Each structure stands twice: as structure tokens, then as C-alpha cells.
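Changelog excerpt

This revision adds worked examples to the README so contributors can see how folded entries look when concatenated. The first example is reproduced verbatim below.
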Amino acid sequence: MFLLGIFLLLVFNVFGFRGKTIFVFVYFFGIGWFGLKVDLKLLERIVREVRFRVRPLVGKVEAWRVMGAGAGGDQTRYIDLVAEQTVFDFLKENGVKCFVVGEETGFREVLGGNPNLYFIVDSLDGTYNVLHEIPFNAISLAVADKPKLSAVKLGVVASLTDEMFFSAEKGLGAKLNGNPIKPSKEEKIEDALVSVSFTPNKDFLRRVSGVLENVVHVRHFGANALEVCFVACGRLDAVIDLRGKLRVTDVAAASLILREAGGFIVDERGFPLDSPADSPEKKVSMVAAGNKKLLDKLLSLLGKP
């Protein structure tokens, strides 16, 4: 490999293609052969690129344009497509062989794919907030060695419209803008600040009625990935989403961040949240809480599925 790279460098120089020299060197010794190192720094670079491409669209009529139905089932707006394509293009241009599971475009190969490297992506969580210029939204990037939530090793959830940057590496804790974070220790239902996602469904309202009757401080901000991260850093005490509409792309990164911070995230039956993550069509329900006592109290108030 080394000799091949040197040989090509010499050939390009001899025949006057000096402009190609740097390309060959980078291709064989940096990107094309080895691929970039997949770590939190790489995810941070992707976030910067998405912010750069998407921020100019905020407040523009063009951002609202409907491009069709996304792989996750919702309408895809132009701003969604730009965000997700930016992630895909970055990985391709930087030689990262992987599979991408994206909310808008579904399961895609990058440079032929890699069965041990999956990017689970919601490149714009809280699209309607962005379209209405409400500054609560997120870019969610998770990296796994299998297409499964429990296989996620790296996770980043970053605000599009400000500089919040949540990150976690499995076994190494969670951070906000580089500083370690921990969830709230609030155990009292009546004092807890809880986000509840709503849907106009009688069965859903029956299930959450016990929570609504006991929780005084109820909120919903419209971007689940960021809300779960708010539990991780103690800004929220819990998040409940039992609609059965939450995509795995929404929570792949945030679930790792919360667990690494010391919090809990479970499915509607109280089991640790897990799901195949090979398609944005995979939907889950979840309850996230900063501590086990609060989690158990919330689960006891929820009606049976």
C-alpha cells in the first residue's frame, strides 16, 4: 500500500500532474484507504457543516417547500432534505464507508457500506419549530456497530440555532459543551418538571391521565432528542412519549447521552429502551427520567398498554 502510494505520487509528478499530488497523498494515507477516524470530533465536524448549510434557510419561504413523504412517514420539507443530504455528502466526501439510517431518505450505503458502522441520523429534530423560528430543535447523530439502539457507541445531539452540544461515548459519561453532566435528583411527582408528548387519542389520554392528575409542571417543547438531553443535564426531570410515533432516529443518540449521564430511559412496559434501528419506520414509546425513584413513580401512574 505504501509503495503504491509513492509510485502514484512519482507518476503524477513526472507527467506534470502536480495538482493531483496532494489528492493522491490524502486519498491513500488519510481518507480513501483508511477512512477518517469515527469519533466525537468527527460528529462535531458534521454538526458544524449542517449548521452552516441549514441556518441560512431559517425564516425563508423555501425552507417550507414540501419535497414528498420521508422514509419515516412524515412530510419532508426542503430544509429537512438539505440537512440530511449534508450529513450523507460529508461522510461520502471524507471517505467514511458506512450505512446511514436517515429519517428522510431511509437506509443508504456510503461508499459500499460497512456492516460494522451505522450512522443513525435525525438531521433536523423539531422541523416545525425551526420553520416557525422557535429556537428549540436539534441535530441528532448516533454511531453504532449494529443497527440497534443498544449498539450505539457514540451520540451527539446539538441545537441548530444555538451552540448547545450534547455528547456521549459509551462508558465515558456525557457532556454538554465539553462539561460533564448529571440528571436531576428530584423524586417528588408534584415538584417534577415533566415533558409529555400529546396526541388526540382517547386511549392515549386514558394512559397518561394518572400522570396529568399528579404532575403539576407539564411541558412539551417539540423536539424529543433535545428534551431527553434536557433530562440528562437536569433541566427537565422526565420525558414521556407514549404515542407510538417516536422514531428510532429521534432517540438513538439521546438515549445513550441520558444513560451515560446516569439517567434512565425505558419502553412503555418499563424495560430498557431498545429496538432495531435499520429503518426510520421503526417506532417506539418511551419514558425517560433522571432517577429510578421518579421513573418508578411515573410508571405506576401510567395506564397499561
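The second example, added in the same revision:
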Amino acid sequence: MRGMFSHPAVLFLWIQSASGWMHPKCQIYDSGEDLGDFATWTCTYLRHHEEHYTAACEEVTAIEEDLLGLPPNINNLCITMTHGENRSMSLGFFSQFQDLVYLYIDGCFAQILPTGNSHLPNLEHMYLIGKWVMGSGCCDCHIGPHTFRDLVKLSHLYIQGYRLRAMAPDVFHGIPQLQIFSIGEPCEEDLSEILCRIMNIKSLIKIRVNAPEIQSLNQSNCSNNNQNVTSVFNNLTRVDLLFDEITHIEEGAMAWLQNLTILNADFSQEVLLRLPLSGIKQIQYFSCFGSNDIDIESICNVVFLLSIKQIYLNIANTSSLSMSSVELCIGLEYMHLSGPGAIYPTPHLKWNFISSLKKP
């Protein structure tokens, strides 16, 4: 066990135990294997580092007060706030942890302030979870322009349950090395609210959006930027879009994307047949859930036009299933069908043999 403190003013905060060093709000661990009993799931799946020093804090009401006395050389910090909206949080507080690589905060704040003149030179992963604490509704947290630009090594930013309209349009601008942006339950009905806030991040290679509120896919209009959305996401290697029900698709709405890794949504047959008009050129994994009026032939038509590789369906009308109806599915690598009316998810047709259709 490494040395913690020599200053007598903070020694009273610490009690040595079998599992690590104890703190009134936090537990300190030297390795990920010690985290088995901690309730916050994210802390149990931290990457293993040679230097893996973690503080796991629960029932925090005021970060600057409750986290007083934490060792300055921690690598990972997981915080679960008390229920309800908490007061403002300054990222500058965490600058005392110069070795911090991973920061996870489950809680809703009235405002998040930038680091100011302080820095977090080694922070690579940041998770801001607002909805789990609130239970229902969204976290209306004000976050101003360029709040994260001083996080010079930040490569992965995950935000869940924060209302985007409460953030400045240029809230994410200036993050120099951000590669992966994931957002869940952004409390928005317009995909533009997301795209327009990240379109100036030139280093992005992966985007994941889980937005159940979005029902209509429309062309993006970014009033805060003169650039065309279509031209700014050229470096993306993976894009995952997860929705609930899509009821309308505007022509050219997804032209900014073209190649999509995962698309997961509910479609009627009418809306599904408009998907090729959206501007998407290719989908690797397509999951479609919805009404039972979608026939296999229509699905295979979309498969052909969008060069879909794998498809997962639990809505298909399998009564029309025949070799001729799947002719346009010739390019599929895998198909999974669940027929209608089953109490259990059976019968399943796992078509690993779809490639046999290519044989003469």
C-alpha cells in the first residue's frame, strides 16, 4: 500500500481496512479486483492499468466538501451524487488530481463550470450521467461555451440524461483530441441539436446516439455554423444510432452520414421504404422493430438498396416467406427473424445459410 498523507489535518479522514483506505464518502482501492462490492457498475469495468488507483464515492451532496482529503494521485474517480438537482460543479476542482485518467459522475447539477486556469492534463474518459439520479425527466444543467476545451487528453466523452438545449451551441468546441462521443437520452426531438454541437470536433472517429425522443429524421440546419453538416464528418469510422419509433424521414436527412454501423428503430412499412431516400448509403447492422405489416420482400428491397450486412427483425410477416421474396437479400451475411404472435421469442429463423443463395 502506497503512502497517502503526512499532513495531520487530513489524517482523521482515513481508516485502514482489509479492502483499502476508508473515507466518510469514498473508498480507495489499489486495483480493479477490489471493486466487486461497489454499487456503481461503471467502476467495476474500469480498464486495467499498471497504475490503477481508484476512488469510489457514494451519496455525495457537495463535491468540494465531501471529497475533501482524497489522495491527489488517484487515477480513476467515480462519484454518485444524492437524488435531486445539486448545485454548480466546477471542473477546476478535479485539477488537484493530476494523474486522473477516468472521471465518472452520476448526478444532476444546476451548472457545470470549466477548469478555468487549472488543468486536467491526463484525463481521457469522462462520463456525465444526469437521468439516473433524477429518476424521471431530464437534467437541465447549464454548460457554457468551450467548457471542455482545456481537457487536452480527453478522448471519450459520454453524456446521458442532460438536456442539450440547456447547453451552449458551442459547448463541445475546442476539445483537441476527442475521438469518441456518446450521448444517451438527450431529451431532444431533433437530431440537429446533437450534430450541430459536435460538427466542429475534427478529431471525432466514433459517434453513438441513443435518443428515444427523436421520431422524425430531418435535414440538419446549424444556424451557429456556416459549414455544411454533410462535409464535416469525413473521418468517422463508426456511427451507431438508436431510436424508438421513427414516423417520418425527410429526403436527404442522413446524407451527412452515408455509412452507418448500427441503426436500431421501429418502422412502419411506409417509413421503412423511405429509408433509402435519407442519404444513407450503407448499414452494417440493422435492427427493426415495429408493426407486423412489413413483408419480407420490402425488407429485402431496403437491404439491397442500403447494402445491409446483418439484419435483426421481430416484426416481419413471415407468411410471405419464400425463396423469391428473399432474392434481394442475396448480399446479407446474417438474418434473424422473430415471427408475430409468439409469447416467447420463438420461432427464430437464423439464416446463416443465406449465403447458399449465391451458389448456382
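Reviewer comment on example two: Confidence is low (pLDDT under 50) at residues 1-20, 341-349. The helical segments are 8-11, 63-66, 131-134, 192-198, 269-272, 296-305.
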